[in-house]
Amino acid sequence: MNQLLKWSIENSDATRNDPTASTDPKAERPSGQGLNAEAIQALMGGPSDAELMKQSMAAIESPDVSLDQKLVAFDNLEQLIETVDNANNMQPLGLWTPLKEQLASHEADMRRMAAWCMGTAVQNNQQSQERLLAVGAIPILVKLALQDPNGQVRRKAVYAISSEVRNYPPALNVLVLELPERLRPSRSLDAGDMEEVDSVIDAIKEASSKNLS
Known about the structure:
By secondary structure, this protein is mostly helical. It contains twelve helices and no strands. The chain is globular.
């Protein structure tokens, strides 16, 4: 695991120092950006994605791993769960609860990455949407979106909420109940109607941008 984290950081440094290197479209990624699952597997001698996901979470939770290395591990996890199969494997691997716990980290970057991973896992994926709802993450995400002092954390929390409630009525119902009264829609919403969903998400975005609860 330490070899993986070291290689990720060195690879990122080399890319930044190469003026011909292409720009990563995910500009908010921490050190280790651009590292894909195939590169990880080649480096580690072919471990499964499930093993890599568990290793990433172990690094994220370890008190012996530096913040920079934790963010590399978070970045690797986020890339791995971009695939639906890996996202759905988070539950049998026991990763949802520790991921939720990172939303309460005292480090803003850890809260940001936890929300980002949640948003990635649940996007267009009802099985993962069910898991995020089941672990009780929606109230925490709402609080982060509206009250976190860090703007990047608020934006990623909004992203996670938006991904969670689309085409999934149970999550949208919980979201509406968790919103402060002034942000609640005046009528019930259809989770399958993107204009209706966008209306409540836009209201959250506006409040988030003003950092008003």
